[in-house]
Design brief:
The complex is a heterodimer of chains A (446) and B (454).
Chain A (H helix, E strand, L loop, with lengths): L1 H12 L16 E5 L7 H8 L3 E6 L16 E2 L2 E2 H4 L5 E5 L5 H12 L3 E4 L5 H4 L4 H7 L4 E6 L15 H8 L19 H24 L3 E6 H7 L4 H8 L16 E5 L4 E5 L3 H10 L14 H5 L1 H15 L4 H11 L2 E4 L3 H6 L1 H5 L3 E6 L3 E6 L3 E3 L17 H9 L3 H9 L28
Helix pairs in contact in A: 2-8, 7-9, 8-9, 11-14
Chain B lengths: L22 H9 L15 E4 L5 H12 L3 E6 L15 E2 L2 E2 H5 L4 E5 L5 H13 L2 E4 L5 H4 L4 H7 L4 E5 L17 H8 L27 H24 L3 E5 L1 H6 L5 H8 L16 E5 L4 E5 L3 H11 L2 H6 L3 H4 L5 H12 L4 H13 L8 E4 L3 H6 L1 H5 L3 E6 L3 E6 L4 E2 L17 H9 L3 H9 L4
Parallel strand pairs in B: 1-2, 1-6, 2-5, 6-7, 7-8
Antiparallel strand pairs in B: 3-4, 9-10, 10-11, 12-13
Helix pairs in contact in B: 2-8
The chains are: A alpha/beta (446), B alpha/beta (454).
């Protein structure tokens, strides 16, 4: 009864229908983005989920390269589906910072911003006169983050391109993912980019707290390969202590036993039981309560020993074969061990739980209509994260941003456009322009 | 390849500013991790209570805050956190599992039995003085102790309370009470459904199933998003003075890394299957066998595809799959992969790398091709570059001796994170923390020890 009461309270405190009735945690923080693909743009996207105002600067014409990266070449309503994922609620300014007028506009914008995010090759911004050294002169409170594959300095930082999968490959994640003797597995999603961007965002927010206290800004450097190395749990320590070179172990967790994926009659199921109590529950569920007393399995450390773990996982594998996923899942609930089906995008899309938590987030975009995307996984009861609109075509907000923040007049905007310092989308390559049925107005602020 | 000269000047060394230094030299001087200990800390005004149990997600959240200088107090039950048992093959270093040792950095460790009224009162008093509470129990457990946010907010309105649990603290599944581990978080995130080797020409094999990422990625994702939520709430508190509750479910945390996963289903009604060495949105962008190992190699856009096929000396292959639509066609990807592998297996990964760098850096033709040799744990740990970059930190812990861990990931000119000590035994800081925050001395602690309260 008490749990029910508590859940009534939390369901009310976090009610997703009230998201837009509440303030935003990062309201008043302005972020200037000069970044492409995912690692860079996802940092301001994360900050934007909590209410930061983000100005995304792209090159006029083709804009962000991610506008070409979309599953199976699907350009939905003339847009790349890959581009939507890390470009929410942003203002889209297409500005050529490589020419002096463009760089000057960028500097004037940076003066009015709290955070600058870039993911160019080390030193590029500096060469254009808009690097940290220059920006901190005009805005000492600026928090400037540079993200890339191998950092700003050091042997690997020179002359190497990096993508998400490069980070996976060099970090050790690839070498430790997949089944023994089989292909080292890329994670099926761009984890080095998105996790890296989240780590970068956390650095920015820690710097923001320091700035709240002192008024001082700073420079932050983040390498995505190094970011993944941080989250390889005990790999490095075990190598240091015992020279153990961690191999691929499929779905078996070497440090928790049992913890693995087993094939049922219908589909695979994930099962784990670390504590003795949970393990006893699993043995009961399997109809083999005596296993919990077997010396090979009766303690946590006994179960983790290699030969015992192999034997135990084989027993569970044989049992799971005779069950369905739903049966194992239900037994997990009944006997207190961990069990779950493997959920795919459709399961998550249709999950009432994900909808109620606004993790699967539905909204109406002025240009693209009904959108369903993943939203902020950190739920803040007083300042919930949200998506306001989707990614926009290249340069859609040029006039609004430059008029509002820099007071540029119509004749100045015209001149800048004529000189190609600012610009809009191009027809080709695909992924830049508005939908075919666009009326020329929807989504345009000014 | 010649590298720019890198100089490292510690502030106390003879140091004369030069005007013609490159960006690389300048920023290296400014953010070199070797100077970290001379700089201030971003979060050293914060006190954090981490009551997480059996969860690396909770521990990683407080690790981040501790790296940035917060005073983190771990509250464990008298017998210790179950997470201390998480270790490969059950290996223990001074009674502590390696999974725990990696994420105990800079934290103080006390015990309190939250099932007893004395333990609950201790926790309430600590929470009254803390900035952040972190817990990982199922929804309702802390509430049963009178220690959930709805109670603690009345004692401390500035408190930020982070709850990290697989099923969350609200929504239809929140009350299910199920236990969970990293494998469950990964299974429920959507990542596993696309990670794995698809069935090949030899038919279904045991490894053609959804596969987890090698490390505890579900837990790490959950901990990181929780730290994000705490820091966002902290800024809001700076502005308004109000604390709040942060709820993070690790599967949702990992789902946020799933590209356009949900949007793709929404816009097309389709889902992606196991991608293996292929990719649905960029290809070639793949892992190929080499003479000695594996390498990543990519040449996706038309111009980069031209670069890759030039390096391979195979213009026919370029003509066969001329557009990105051909290369993203799942029916063609296995053929393209096979063709690249037929070439790459004649060379070592280093030779592939040299060929690519020669082409790209000397501009022998159009396009930029990316490649990387797969590095394993051993190679990386022994690679001087990562040590120079401060990726690892080796030091002597007063209790646990010489250990090496992955260091904080940020290089910062102002307030970089750092490691001060590695871990503490169960209850090692009881006397200090009970004295400092609660005015409780040895005598009381001794008595409570006999009652299994501490």
């Amino acid at each position: 009864m008490s749990r029910e009461e508590y859940l009534n309270w939390t369901n009310k405190a976090f009610d997703a229908s009230k998201i837009f009735a509440k303030p935003e945690a990062l309201h008043g923080i302005r972020v200037l983005e000069l970044a492409t693909l995912i690692l860079g743009p996802a940092v301001p996207d994360n900050l934007g989920l909590l209410g930061a105002e983000v100005i995304k600067v792209e090159l006029p014409g083709a804009g962000d390269t991610m506008r070409s990266v979309t599953p199976y070449g699907t350009f939905w309503k003339n847009a790349s589906i890959g581009q939507f994922a890390q470009n929410h609620s942003k203002y889209h300014l297409a500005l050529d910072v490589r020419v002096s007028q463009g760089a000057e506009i960028f500097r004037r914008l940076a003066k009015k911003c709290d955070v600058v995010v870039e993911n160019l090759r080390a030193g590029t911004m500096d060469r254009w006169g808009i690097g940290y050294e220059q920006l901190r002169e005009i805005n000492p409170g600026i928090i400037y983050i540079a993200l890339n594959g191998f950092g700003q300095w050091g042997e690997y930082s020179v002359g190497r391109a990096s993508y998400d999968a490069v980070a996976q490959t060099v970090s050790g994640l690839l070498a430790t993912t997949g089944f023994p003797g089989r292909l080292p597995l890329k994670t099926g999603v761009f984890v080095g980019d998105y996790f890296g961007a989240l780590q970068g965002t956390i650095g920015v927010m820690a710097a923001l707290h320091h700035r709240d206290r002192t008024g001082h800004g700073q420079f932050i450097e983040f390498s995505q390969g190094e970011g993944l190395m941080r989250v390889l749990d005990w790999s490095w320590l075990y190598y240091y202590l015992e020279k153990y070179n961690r191999p691929q172990t499929g779905n078996r967790d070497l440090a928790i036993c049992p913890s693995d994926v087993f094939s049922c009659q219908d589909a695979p199921v994930a099962v784990a039981a670390a504590s003795n109590q949970e393990f006893q529950g699993l043995c009961t569920a399997m109809g083999k309560p005596e296993l919990a007393k077997d010396a090979r399995f009766s303690t946590i450390s006994a179960r983790l020993k290699d030969e015992n773990a192999v034997a135990l996982l084989a027993i569970i594998r044989d049992w799971a074969k005779t069950k369905t996923v739903a049966e194992v899942d239900a037994l997990g609930s009944k006997h207190g061990f961990a069990a779950s089906p493997i959920l795919d995008a459709k399961d998550l899309y249709e999950s009432p739980h994900m909808r109620a938590r606004a993790t699967v987030f539905e909204y109406e975009d002025p240009m693209y209509g009904k959108m369903v995307e993943t939203c902020c996984p950190a739920k803040l009861c007083k300042t919930p994260g949200r998506i306001k609109w989707a990614n926009k075509p290249v340069g859609l907000d040029n006039d609004f941003v430059l008029r509002k923040l820099l007071g540029l007049r119509t004749y100045q905007l015209k001149a800048l456009a004529e000189q190609k310092v600012i610009g809009k989308w191009v027809e080709n390559p695909p992924g830049r322009k508005p939908p075919a049925d666009w009326d020329g107005k929807a989504g345009v602020i000014m | 390849m010649t590298l720019p000269k890198i100089t490292t000047n510690l502030p106390y060394e003879d140091f004369s500013p030069e005007t013609d230094r490159t960006w690389v030299d300048w920023i290296h001087d400014m953010d070199d991790p070797k100077q970290n200990y001379l700089k201030p800390e971003a979060l050293d005004d914060l006190t954090v209570i981490d009551a997480s149990y059996g969860s690396i997600a909770g521990l990683f959240c407080s690790s981040i805050l501790a790296e940035f200088g917060a005073e983190v107090i771990r509250v464990e039950p008298p017998e210790g956190d179950l997470a201390r048992e998480f270790s490969p093959f059950g290996y223990k270093h001074q009674d502590t599992g390696l999974g725990y040792l990696v994420e105990a950095r800079n934290k103080l460790h006390i015990t309190a039995n939250l099932a007893t009224s004395e333990g609950q009162e201790v926790f309430r008093r600590l929470a009254a003085q803390a900035d952040v509470v972190i817990e990982t129990a199922a929804a309702g457990v802390m509430d049963g102790y009178g220690l959930s946010y709805r109670y603690l907010k009345d004692i401390n309105p500035r408190l930020i309370y982070a709850a990290i649990n697989t099923y969350g603290h609200f929504g239809p599944d929140a009350g299910c009470g199920k236990v969970s581990y990293d494998i469950i978080d990964q299974a429920r995130s959507g990542v596993m459904a696309v990670t794995g080797e698809p069935v090949g020409p030899e038919g279904p094999q045991p490894w053609n199933i959804p596969t987890k990422e090698g490390s505890w990625m579900g837990w790490y994702a959950g901990g990181a998003w929780a730290a994000f939520g705490v820091l966002g709430a902290l800024h809001y508190r700076h502005v308004t003075g109000e604390g709040q509750m942060v709820d993070v479910a690790p599967p949702e945390a990992e789902l946020s890394f799933c590209d356009y996963h949900v949007a793709y289903y929404h816009t097309t009604g389709k889902i992606r299957g196991l991608v293996g060495a292929y990719d649905s949105a960029v290809f070639p962008y793949t892992i190929v066998k080499t003479k000695d190992s594996y390498s990543f190699i990519a040449g996706f856009s038309d111009v980069n595809w031209e670069g890759l096929t030039n390096i391979m000396g195979d213009p026919e292959l370029r003509k066969k799959y001329p557009t990105i639509f051909d290369r993203l066609n799942p029916d063609f990807q296995p053929e393209i992969h096979k063709a690249i592998e037929a070439w790459s297996k004649n060379f070592t990964s280093q030779e592939v790398f040299e060929k690519v760098q020669d082409y790209t850096l000397n501009r022998r033709g159009p396009g930029v091709v990316a490649t990387a040799r797969m590095a394993d744990v051993k190679e990386n740990f022994e690679d001087e570059n990562w040590w120079e970059r401060g990726v690892f930190d080796k030091g002597t812990d007063p209790v646990y001796g010489d250990l090496a861990l992955q260091a904080p990931v940020w290089k910062m000119t102002g307030t970089p994170g750092r490691i001060k000590w590695v871990c503490r035994p169960i209850g090692a800081d009881n006397e200090y923390i009970y004295q400092k925050y609660l005015g409780i001395g040895k005598t009381q602690l001794q008595e409570w020890k006999t009652k299994n309260i501490v």
